[in-house]
């Protein structure tokens, strides 16, 4: 894919311009402490550095706990080096204490001397050239070299330049020559490899302009595949955590590119990119945690970015800055790729931050994901395609909460099976991979609730001819979920699944999820016994599941989830199911099995 911009010549770029801050801006970093935001950030940074030093395991700089000061498992990762080096850079410019610079020198020397940290050692993901570690370390070494410059010993500066060129960029170029799949991918790996290779190329613009120009051209061509994948109306199929990764790596490249040549890949004028930033705000629930479809943990710190301050400033969107302030990452967290300390070069002192109201009802149609929030209750619904990177087999799945309590949840990263979500399985099988569901109807009700219909038939091409999931949110208190199924000449073996982290009580066809207030589920009379399973996934979980007393070819299963005590009446007549909630009726097609022809062996 040819990019829509020309590759700039690095020989025409200012050799003295900093990639992120100019020298006088680094020297003025202490003045930012006049802003209470930065004073607090600096104090937390010093706490983190003290804890990192005390927690270090012997002589291995990559080995620290997941959370500083907490009894969490230890982890060994090159990403710990980024945490330590970025924190030391900020601390050194503010305090000028030599301990910070000395530690940076030790860590950079460690990186320059250990090629194996940069390169895949086990042919991970069928990669023969660069992998994520390569890209991340290209950024880290280029950033440190640029931020500290002449304050590093000359021989270390040369070692860093050689590592960028002969280890990182050499692996990146080898991946191109050998045809590694990431060259043309359109998900988070794209900016992690191409964006960070572009940063390294800019760092080499004076030392090796020929290599810099060649690598910059490859990086820009690769990034064109990512930009072409931006959904027109916002969102990101990998979910909110990996949208963070994609945006941050892309931003890390665009900032120096724009500073050196005025090119920003069109992002300042790209409404699809702006809507991804807006989507992130809508996909944080009122409980402060992500609406975590795709591979994303509910309790992740990977849900916000210091990089958002940059886009808030250049796009004049103070609500993006307010969002980052509200969701700031915990300084004790060592995992992940991005850290609170990066605000020192992404945010200006006293940067304007102002919350703006979120849409009550938002349908991101390109993804086919929905976020709805009432005054108290809130819900997200997952439709669309289930075969994208980091997707799960969870179409028709929904998350339900009220105020700060999440009642029905997504288990999080790695829980990929249909039965691990708030969804339906047929004949105990997962949804088919790489299939698409469609929201066919979504509109607001006069009481502030909504109506939603989703066609899920393609997800079960074997047993199911028609499958529509209907949601009717009545105001704030009552949710009717009806699954309307037509079997393909076989009993469908329908089974319903729900996931919660809260205690539950089951009494026949009534389930109580014990939040504050309690959520009561009223199952239909044809529902079979409810099974409660306990399992662990990003914390304790309870799984609720049930089938039908008598398996059927055609199914119309309606359950009422309520925070109140409504009058509920069900009535079947002339192949129609009518569900009444406090006198308001809803009708759904419910043909019986009398006319169904069963396959041999299914009677």
- As residue ranges, the low-confidence spans are 597-603
Shape: elongated
Top-tier CATH class of the domain at 361-589: Mainly Beta
Level-2 CATH architecture of the domain at 361-589: Distorted Sandwich
CATH topology of the domain at 361-589: Beta-galactosidase, Chain A, domain 5
- Bin the helical content: 25-40%
Q: Roughly how many Å is the radius of gyration? A: 27 Å
Compute the number of helices: 13
Q: Determine the structural class based on helices, strands and strand pairing.
A: alpha+beta
How far do the termini sit from each other? 55 Å
What is the average per-residue confidence, as pLDDT, rounded to a whole number?
93
- Measured by DSSP, the beta-strand proportion falls in 15-25%
Number of strands: 23
| Largest sheet composition | 9 strands, antiparallel
Strands of the largest sheet, in order across it? 6-10-11-12-13-20-17-16-15
Description:
- It contains 13 helices and 23 strands.
- It is an alpha+beta fold.
- A hairpin with a 2-residue loop joins strand 21 and strand 22.
- The longest helix has 25 residues.
- The radius of gyration is 27 Å and the shape is elongated.
- It starts with 22 loop residues before the first helix and ends in a 14-residue tail after the last strand.
- The C terminus is likely disordered.
Q: Which structural traits does this protein have?
A:
nine-stranded antiparallel sheet; 32% helix; single chain; 603 residues; 13 helices; alpha+beta; Beta-galactosidase, Chain A, domain 5
């Amino acid at each position: 894919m040819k990019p829509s911009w020309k590759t700039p010549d690095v020989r025409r770029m200012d050799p003295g311009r900093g990639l992120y801050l100019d020298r006088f801006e680094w020297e003025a970093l202490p003045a930012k402490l006049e802003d209470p935001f930065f004073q607090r950030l600096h104090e937390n940074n010093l706490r983190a550095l003290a804890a990192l030093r005390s927690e270090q395991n012997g002589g291995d700089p990559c080995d620290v706990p997941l959370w500083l000061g907490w009894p969490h498992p230890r982890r060994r990762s090159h990403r710990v080096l980024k945490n330590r080096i970025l924190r030391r850079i900020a601390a050194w410019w503010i305090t000028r204490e030599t301990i910070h610079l000395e530690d940076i020198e030790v860590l950079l020397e460690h990186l320059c001397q250990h090629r194996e940290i940069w390169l895949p050692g086990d042919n991970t993901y069928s990669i023969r050239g660069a992998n994520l570690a390569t890209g991340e370390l290209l950024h880290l070494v280029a950033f440190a070299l640029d931020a500290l410059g002449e304050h590093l010993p000359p021989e270390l500066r040369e070692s860093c330049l050689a590592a960028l060129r002969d280890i990182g960029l050499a692996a990146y170029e080898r991946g191109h020559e050998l045809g590694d799949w990431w060259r043309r991918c359109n998900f988070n790996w794209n900016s992690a490899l191409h964006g960070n290779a572009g940063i390294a190329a800019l760092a080499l613009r004076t030392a090796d302009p020929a290599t810099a120009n060649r690598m910059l051209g490859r990086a820009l061509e690769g990034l064109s595949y990512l930009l072409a994948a931006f959904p027109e109306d916002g969102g990101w199929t990998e979910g909110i955590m990996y949208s963070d990764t994609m945006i941050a790596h892309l931003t890390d490249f665009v900032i120096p590119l724009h500073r050196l040549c005025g090119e920003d890949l069109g992002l300042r004028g790209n409404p699809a990119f702006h809507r991804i930033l807006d989507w992130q705000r809508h996909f944080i629930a009122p409980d402060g945690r992500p609406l975590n479809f795709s591979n994303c943990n509910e309790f992740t710190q990977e849900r916000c970015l210091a990089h958002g301050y940059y886009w808030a400033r250049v796009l004049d969107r103070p609500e993006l800055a307010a969002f980052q302030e509200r969701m700031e990452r915990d300084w004790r967290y060592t995992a992940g790729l991005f850290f609170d300390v990066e605000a020192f070069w992404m945010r200006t002192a006293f940067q304007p931050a102002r919350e703006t109201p979120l849409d009550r009802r938002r349908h991101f149609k390109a993804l086919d994901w929905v976020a709805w929030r009432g005054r108290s209750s809130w819900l997200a619904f997952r439709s669309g395609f289930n075969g994208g990177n980091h997707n799960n087999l969870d179409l028709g799945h929904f998350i339900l909460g009220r105020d700060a309590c999440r009642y029905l949840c997504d288990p999080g990263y790695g829980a990929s099976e249909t039965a691990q979500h708030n969804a339906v399985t047929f004949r105990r099988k997962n949804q088919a991979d790489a299939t698409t569901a469609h929201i066919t109807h979504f509109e607001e009700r006069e009481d502030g609730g909504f109506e939603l219909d989703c066609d899920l038939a393609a997800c079960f091409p074997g047993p199911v001819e028609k499958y529509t999931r209907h949601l009717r949110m009545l105001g704030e208190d009552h949710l009717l979920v009806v699954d309307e199924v037509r079997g393909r000449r076989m009993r469908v073996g329908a089974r319903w699944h729900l996931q919660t982290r809260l205690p539950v009580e089951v009494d026949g066809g009534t389930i109580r999820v014990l939040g504050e207030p309690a959520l009561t589920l009223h199952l239909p009379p044809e529902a079979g016994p409810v099974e409660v399973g306990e399992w662990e996934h990003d914390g304790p979980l309870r799984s609720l599941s049930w089938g039908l007393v008598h398996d059927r070819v055609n199914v119309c299963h309606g359950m009422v989830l309520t925070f109140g005590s409504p009058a509920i009446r069900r009535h079947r007549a002339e192949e129609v199911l009518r569900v009444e909630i406090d006198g308001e009726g809803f009708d759904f097609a419910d043909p019986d099995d009398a006319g169904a022809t069963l396959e041999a062996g299914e009677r």
